[in-house]
């Protein structure tokens, strides 16, 4: 399995018991969806290795306590500490309406209600306080904040996102 075929679920942040249990900080708004998994991919030295889960349960509502098969003591748990966890993309819950996953809108066309065609989304910049659509427009980069108030419609069939940005925002880049 390649990382491109998976989504980041979280990170093993600490050992929980002397029996090899670990605590995982999940990167999700719905941790309960991932409470009863059978297996998960653990990123060890840039290789995704499948680990089977004996049992898991939510711990203090935001962490997932996991006991992996063949991780039976503190030393085994220590070996996977700070590892990232991944699941195949097909396990992501389907989103509807104007909600979307970042990876799913790459390649979508952005149209502004007032400006018209803006361009194609090449990536999402989420390293700033507010995530941004990075859009290519005739060789230039246009950045549009991913603000719920700006996004009018996400059309998965035509792979188009309709936005209404403040007047002059798009012209700043052109």
Describe the structure.
- This protein is mainly β and 174 residues long.
- The chain has 2 domains: 3-91, Beta Barrel (Elongation Factor Tu (Ef-tu), domain 3); 102-172, SH3 type barrels (Roll).
- Helix content is 4%, strand content 46%.
- The chain is built from 1 helix and 12 strands; from the N terminus they run βββββαβββββββ.
- A 6-stranded antiparallel barrel has the order 1-2-5-4-3-6.
- The N and C termini lie far apart (41 Å).
Could you give a quick summary of the protein structure above?
The chain is mostly beta strands and 174 residues long.
What about the largest sheet? 6 strands, antiparallel, barrel
The structural class is mainly beta
Total strands: 12
Total number of domains: 2
Determine the CATH superfamily of the largest domain. Answer: RimM
Query: Helix tally?
Result: 1
Distance between the termini: 41 Å
Q: How would you describe the oligomerization state of the chains in this entry?
A: single chain
Note poorly predicted spans. Answer: none
* CATH fold type of the largest domain: Elongation Factor Tu (Ef-tu), domain 3
Helix content: under 10%
């Amino acid at each position: 399995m390649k990382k491109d075929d998976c989504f980041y679920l979280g990170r093993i942040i600490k050992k929980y018991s002397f029996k090899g249990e670990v605590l995982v900080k999940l990167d999700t708004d719905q941790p309960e969806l991932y409470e009863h998994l059978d297996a998960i991919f653990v990123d060890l030295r840039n290789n995704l290795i499948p680990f089977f889960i004996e049992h898991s349960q939510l711990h203090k509502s935001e962490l997932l306590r996991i006991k992996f098969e063949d991780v039976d003591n503190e030393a085994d748990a220590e070996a996977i500490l700070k590892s990232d966890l991944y699941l195949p993309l097909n396990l992501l819950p389907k989103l509807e309406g104007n909600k979307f996953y970042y990876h799913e809108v790459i390649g979508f066309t952005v149209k502004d209600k007032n400006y018209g065609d803006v361009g194609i989304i090449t990536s999402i910049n989420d390293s700033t306080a507010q995530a941004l659509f990075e859009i290519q427009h005739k060789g230039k980069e246009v950045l549009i904040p991913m603000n719920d108030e700006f996004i009018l419609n996400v059309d998965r069939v035509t792979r188009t996102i309709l936005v209404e940005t403040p007047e002059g925002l798009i012209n700043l880049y052109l």
